Prior knowledge:
By secondary structure, the chain is α/β, with parallel strands linked by helices. The protein contains 13 helices and 13 strands. It has an 8-stranded parallel β-sheet with strand order 2-3-4-5-6-7-8-9. The protein starts with a strand and ends with a strand.
Amino acid sequence: MKSITIIKPDDWHLHLRDGDLLEAVIFSSSHHFQRALVMPNLSPPITTVKMAEEYKNRICVANRSVLERIRPENINAFASFNPYMTLYLNSEMSSQELKRVSESPDVLAVKFYPAGATTNSTFGVSEFESYYRVFEQMEKLDIVLCVHGESINPEIDVFDREARFIEESFDPMTRRFPNLRVVFEHISTADAVNFVNDQNENVVASVTPQHLAYNRNNLLAGKLRPHKYCAPLLKKEADRSSLVHAVTADSNEKFFLGTDSAPHLIGEKESSCGCAGCFSAPYALAKYAEVFFAEGKLENLENFASLNGAKFYGLPINEEKLKLVQRNNIPKDFFMTEKGEKIVSFVHGETLDWQIVN
Ligand code: DOR
Ligand code: ZN
């Protein structure tokens, strides 16, 4: 039986939601990851350091109370899960707030969402350029900008929106602010891989398990699979393969793990007008391991999952370890909130090749 032990990974892009849904999903992350960067797209969004600190506290309380229920004998192993926070970039973001971000040990980044691009993003504005004033300050204060990079021009084909954003918004922005540290989140195309590789060391990218493991046929061919529907959409095989080469490469320092795990209740996914978001947290590492193994690069999984992101964010490397074994296993059909509402993961209906032992 093949196995690998790596430094415990971090998830640098995670949606944890709030309330009942937070309680239902938190263990899927705290079980496998030591740290995470939590996205601010709640309703209303997290826009101040104070809100972020309160949200962080709710996450830690939820984690502890779930652990007391399901792992009372082993609380300390998972209660050390540390969520770092982000603020939702908006036109009201003041210089004082940015100063507070730069001084906060809990808030690691500011997140840009194009208006209307995804869940709870009606708050964003469409023009990236309108934030140049904020970017200038962030560059000076060395605050990381996380970017959801998709054009929201309704005339642009939805499969071309990442490429168009690079050309029209991202490229001019990185030329103007070469010292701003930027994470191009959940990249989905060969264009994005090339763009990141062509930039200086301040521009890096996070990559999800779904964009590495699947192409758009897995979403759309024959039958529609709503639990693999996310923004940005899965793309062509050539894009997937370019992402796999980038993350598994021996010299990869620019690409790191960010699951973009984005839980929705089953009714919001299996719907006539369904939400974008893959709930991947419980099986993300198994899928990443499958991809690295298939590429003959399992030895590089640790760089991607546990080292590159921490280095970029200037954080220490975790001390804990995590073991994965190659063993067929069937994922759970669903997870459940206290009220009995189901959440289905993105690997629903599959058999997995890898499993985490902890
Ligand atoms: O598919 C997505 N779902 N993409 C995002 O960027 C946001 C996320 C969500 O919050 O549901
Ligand atoms: Zn996201």
